[in-house]
Amino acid sequence: MAVSKTTKKRGALGKGLGALLQDSPQKGKGEEEAAHPVAGIFEIGLEEIQVNPFQPRTHFDKTALEELAESIRVQGIIQPITVRKLAEGEYQLISGERRYQASKIAGLEKIPAYVRLANDQQMLEMALIENIQRENLNALEIAHSYQRLLSECDLKQEQLGDRVGKNRTTVNNYLRLLKLPPDIQAGIRDQKISMGHARALINIEDVDKQLAIFKRMVTEELSVRKVEALVKELNEGQEKKEAPEASNLDPVKKYEINKLQQKLASHFGTKVSLKADQKDKGEIKIPFHSTSDLNRILEILDLI
């Protein structure tokens, strides 16, 4: 029974890197070769290999590289790297930069590699998907990789989900991380907070309040469930009607008080209540949730 081109193309989705390696579009001899290894596995000199300019991972743990290098000294390279051929005796990494870097540390002169021909877009897509599937990327690196696949490889979210084996909701949750403030994104990158913490913070619209809870969760090492409860409390508080004394304030003064309240919340890393009336009388409330939380606030006030 004949298989239509449409069916064949759709069947490639969901296979991740394998789909790219086996079912790339073919337009001529050069691109036909790009869909198959040139001739299996080769031993290639490390000095002949250039690093991958499309590498989505920007940080490699030095200790982990040393451990991998020691493993390579003892057992050798178990899984070959993948490279593309640029010219005779000149190659560029598609995937396997950790193995490549560790092999240099281990003192190897050559490394086993699958050799392929690929254009820049194919190489970018292969490198991104291979890293997402096989490397221990943090949530932010995955989010950036998803964004690059969408923007630079011209994929739609549904296609992207098929390629990386994730549903559209999961892909969207990662992409939403890129809307968080730089400080919080750095916290994800440095593994100060988890994906679950970050997803809770996304539900806060006000950036100052996001940063306030972020600061508190890091300081107090709050669980995801605790952060979710704080966010729920914050959002429910915003939905409540304003107190009568606040509703009597003129708009300019109300704006100034709200802005100051947000600054105080950001400074103390907790929800702060600031109230004032037309005679400029009022109160400030700074709640604390434990002895350690109280001591933290007192330190900020320079009282202990």
TrEMBL record:
GO cellular component annotations of the record: chromosome
Keywords (A to Z) from UniProt: Chromosome partition, DNA-binding
InterPro entries: Chromosome_partition/occlusion, HTH_ParB/Spo0J, ParB/RepB/Spo0J, ParB/Sulfiredoxin_sf, ParB_dimer_C, ParB_N
One example of a Gene Ontology biological process annotation: positive regulation of sporulation resulting in formation of a cellular spore
Basic residues bias spans: 1-12
Sequence segments annotated as region (Disordered): 1-33
Family note: Belongs to the ParB family.
NCBIfam families documented for this protein: parB_part
Start and end residues of each ParB-like N-terminal domain: 42-132
Annotated protein name in UniProt: Chromosome partitioning protein, ParB family
Domain of life: Bacteria
GO molecular function: DNA binding
